[in-house]
What we know:
single chain, alpha+beta, 5-stranded mixed beta sheet, 4-stranded antiparallel beta sheet, 7 helices, 19% strand
Amino acid sequence: MPEGHTVHRLAEAFGAHFVGHTLHASSPQGRFADGAGLLDGRTLLGAEAWGKQMFLQFDGELWLRVHLGMFGMWRFVGPGLAGLGRRTRGRAAESELDEEGRPLPRAAVRLRLASGTHVGDLSGPTICAVQTKAEKRAVTATIGPDPLRPGARPGRAWDVISRSRMAIGQLLMRQEVVAGIGNIYRAELLFRAGIEPHRPGRELSKAQWDGLWRDARGLLRDGVRDGVIITTRPEHRPAGKAVVGRRMRRDGRCYVAFRSKEPCRVCGTAVRMEVMAGRKLYWCEVCQVD
């Protein structure tokens, strides 16, 4: 499932390449034909990311709400969109172009948004819905503070965490508590803070929560910039893995995520993996004792 930095990158891409253009909307798959019909021929006015959800604003006070979930993705065609979503590579053959010279969509595409120069194909989302301004506002009111959004209020999340018996490892994954943190960021934030993931939220100190929030903001911003999740500090990366960004090999990017039974980068203890609330949790039982 894409984490918050990816959704913010997608919103930035729509803002840079689609906003201000009148878009042709269609549903090649057919499942979103009515929604596409409402959007077709409208101008895109803005794009917003709220945690793991994106809202595209069209004229007429309509909003397209998209939650990619576990299997959703965007594929893009057009200049300046390399590295966003999954990009259609190469040049389409003539037989694969429509009458306007755009690549034909795959059969599973739920929604296609096309300007004169760019195409965005959405497939497999958990949520794809056209909403009014009031409906959009009702949804965003239920989303927790997003570390990447200006004006986000971490105190709102702390009010919930500080009273909860639930494990902090679960609380960080609840989007109504704090938005945009997924399985990888959850594991890495807790490791970097040295916090045991089973610890009840109410046993955290305010200083620990403030540190988690600051670190989340920094790591998520790095993710938006680099297009990948990199949480390791330079001194803990394997030799030859000091390069940042997409050029860094996967085995140098994270401390514990997806490293079950491998040695901890700090203490050498085997990284543990277990299932917490239906998702895999990675942690070090030596480094995370606080």
